[in-house]
Write a structure and sequence with these properties.
The chain is mostly beta strands. It is built from 2 helices and 13 strands, in the order βββββββββββββαα.
């Protein structure tokens, strides 16, 4: 942990770390998780008809603002450690997550075409460099990831 971070504890499982320099917030594990373990349930605090940078897509015209709100601080990685299961409405561990590790998910696993793309700096070996949603990625790349039922269904139609 850096001295220039503000920490907000979230129950017994996580903490939000906010960089005092950039203002960026991230969610970190305060306990260990095993693959397949449920980290949190979630729901929609609000349902929007179009995406924004805080929503998770659940259908063509349904994008939810997350409840609990702290889940919005799970940032993107091209090598994610969690998955948003939008059928069961749970966040699950994809692999072992160590105490102090940042929670990350693959945004195109739930987002067809994002509100705004961004340059990815995740530094993973398989970094895709620019993220804008599943619609903008080749099928062979998408098949390497666990995808929401909505994205799987869109791929069958395309």
């Amino acid at each position: 942990m850096l001295v220039s971070e503000k920490i907000t504890k979230i129950g017994s499982i996580a903490e939000i770390r906010e960089s005092q320099t950039t203002g960026y917030k991230s969610l970190y594990a305060t306990v260990e998780f095993k693959p397949g373990q449920v980290i949190s349930t979630f729901g929609g605090k609000e349902i929007l008809d179009r995406p924004n940078y805080l929503t998770v897509q659940i259908s063509d015209h349904q994008h939810i603002m997350l409840d609990p709100e702290f889940l919005q601080y799970i940032n993107h990685s091209c090598s994610p450690n969690v998955f948003f299961d939008t059928q069961k409405m749970v966040v699950i561990a994809l692999r072992n997550i160590e105490m102090g590790e940042e929670f990350t998910f693959f945004y195109p696993s739930t987002e067809w075409s994002m509100d705004r793309g961004f340059d990815c700096f995740c530094q993973s070996e398989n970094c895709l460099e620019y993220i804008q949603g599943a619609a903008h990625l080749p099928l062979d790349v998408l098949k390497q990831y666990k995808l929401s039922q909505y994205i799987e269904n869109r791929l069958k139609v395309e």
